[in-house]
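Hi support team,

I'm filing this because I wasn't sure whether my run with guanosine-5'-monophosphate finished correctly. The job status page said complete, but I'd like someone to confirm that the output block is well-formed before I use it downstream. Pasting the exact inputs I used:
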Amino acid sequence: MKDSNCIFCKISGGEIPSKTIYEDNEFRVILDISPATRGHALIIPKEHYANLYEMPEEAAGRVMMLAKRMAGYLTERLHCEGLNIVQNNGEVAGQTVFHFHMHLIPRYTGDGNEDKLCWHHLELSAEELEEIFNKLKQ
Ligand code: 5GP
Ligand code: ZN
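And here is everything the job wrote out:
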């Protein structure tokens, strides 16, 4: 299914040109137009899913397999020293394009993002932690 108002439907379908570094029947991997680091790439499924919640498990599994392959490829070609995988779901989580995508962000010493791809740590009491655990344990 495609969404005619969705930029990533147009990019993944080839209607809008992109710097494509990999493509198969199901996915297109492109360079991010506003990269965090050199080689910042996006895995975009050709099918329109707004986010991870909407995506079938099997497709999500195939995204991760492709991420594994692309991580090796980017590292071999760019000689990055590490790589972050980021995948935002929902505005509150920083998602700005509402067609599922996975960020592959090569990391280099001194790339200027040392303080960006991390978070502040909460200080939870033992009771608060227990309460969360009780909601989540199966
Ligand atoms: P989000 O914040 O939704 O996780 O990430 C959206 C990403 O898509 C951003 O990093 C942004 O730079 C990238 N992006 C948005 N529009 C375009 C576009 O037209 N072409 C490319 N190549 N990247 C885009
Ligand atoms: Zn779309």
